[in-house]
Amino acid sequence: MSEVVEYEFGDNREQHIRSSELILQISITAAALIWNQVAVLHDEQGIDFLVEPGLVEMRRRLADRLTLLAEAVVRKTSWSEEDLRPFVSWHLLGSEHYGEYVRNTIARYEDLQTQASQLDGEI
Fold it and tell me: What's the pLDDT at 8?
């Protein structure tokens, strides 16, 4: 659908094009965030990622924040950005085993928040 926006006419055409491009970027970032979860959580060798209490709590908070973010986008309202780092213990962030997964999850979530906040100004 993002490809047809540039062929539409009417009020705020440029804004619609920018919004369309931003929505596409948000979709790609969301896919990267979900793929990170799927790739790690469905790896039979990484079963401990499913049960590590700190990671379970991080994913719970992430799910809550993603729900709030989605609701705000749908309702065209603002939301408060939240950093997930305070909710993840330092031993997980610095861990050789869990660290990359945690840092990637947080980075994709931050990217998503940033992009969605730009959309808030577009709509």
Answer: 66
What total number of domains does the chain contain? Answer: 1
20 in Cβ contact with 11 (< 8 Å): no
Residues 83, 71: Cα–Cα separation, whole Å = 18
Domain that holds residue 65: 5-122
Only one residue has tokens 């994913």, namely: 59
Structure pTM?
Answer: 0.78
Residues 4-21 pLDDT 10s: 666 566 677 777 778 888
DSSP H helical segments within 42-76, as ranges?
48-51, 53-75
Place of tokens 């992009």: 115
Highest mean pLDDT among 5-9, 13-17, 28-32, 39-43: 28-32
| Cα gap 95→88, rounded to integer Å | 12
